[in-house]
Design a protein that fits this description.
Two copies of one chain form a homodimer.
Chain A lengths: L2 H13 L6 H11 L6 E3 H10 L6 H13 L4 E6 L2 E5 L7 E4 L4 E4 L6 E4 L7 E14 L2
Parallel strand pairs in A: 4-7
Antiparallel strand pairs in A: 1-3, 2-3, 4-5
Helix pairs in contact in A: 1-2, 2-3, 3-4
Chain A binds a DNA duplex through helix 2 and helix 4.
Chain lengths: 139, 139
DNA sequence: GTATATGCAAACCGTTTGCATGGCT
DNA sequence: AGCCATGCAAACGGTTTGCATATAC
């Protein structure tokens, strides 16, 4: 791990006033260590941390992902009823979901033009707009 | 129940070559008996069937909703990781999701203009585009 | 008569929680 | 020292499944 990787992860945690514990640093590094955006599931992130040689319990992965979420560092994306996905990019943007293997990736937001949004009922405001483009293999 | 209600439900099942059992007719009637579109959860539909005096087991509600889905009579909508929603309207259209109570309703599709969609990667085609506008109470 | 649908209860699986231990400041 | 994070295992809740019974055709 390069020094920049560690520093980026530390600052990311510091930004949200989260104590830089070994486990959080490990997960933060896996999430944003290289400055790229990522979409992970709890199981997937846990597997990655084990593969990286860091010992983090599955429960801690869940608790930590939730903590990151509440701190606004990541966002949950609902695309599959059976799994939760977390996105390191926190602004509203469209996603591609590969039905074949359950992979989630960012779609090019610039290509997505929502000219008009349905008017929210009175008394309500838009919290978030989720756009998921589900993809299947072309035959 | 009016005769039209029963006939509509029967034809709806017949359209998909599904045997008109008592349970299926009951659920079909609750879903499309009045010709309106509906968004239900398995638990909600089960409660409705019990309230209507029809005895249908929860397992059968699940199996039946799945069967209706596979037959193309309804579509599953993923908006909440903890529950599955089913929509009697089967074309792509935007939804309003009330975070406060988990209600799902159709948004006015005419007001929703997607001028451009992100280009799918080569080898893949768009299976479905889910648009969920999450609403929160305005303070 | 044969294939299929139903009901029950148990299994399932991702996620959450209680509580004792350990680490950060 | 005090508060907070971690880990384990048990609990949880929605959904699925195996199997015996009942129903449609």
């Amino acid at each position: 791990m390069t020094p920049e990787t560690l520093e980026r992860s530390s600052k990311w945690l510091a930004r949200a006033n989260l104590r830089p514990t070994r486990q959080r640093l490990s997960l933060a590094t896996l999430l944003v260590g290289d400055g790229q955006h990522r979409h992970v599931t709890a199981e997937g992130l846990h597997a990655a941390s084990v593969a990286a040689g860091d010992k983090v319990s599955l429960a801690t992965v869940y608790n930590t992902l939730r903590a990151f979420c509440e701190a606004g560092l990541i966002k949950e994306v609902t695309v599959d009823g059976t799994r939760s996905y977390f996105d390191t990019r926190t602004d509203d943007h469209p996603h591609f979901y590969y039905e074949e293997d359950g992979t989630l990736v960012d779609a090019n937001a610039a290509q997505m033009k929502i000219a008009a949004l349905p008017t929210p009922p009175t008394g309500y405001e838009v919290a978030k707009v989720d756009v998921v483009v589900r993809l299947r293999k072309r035959d």
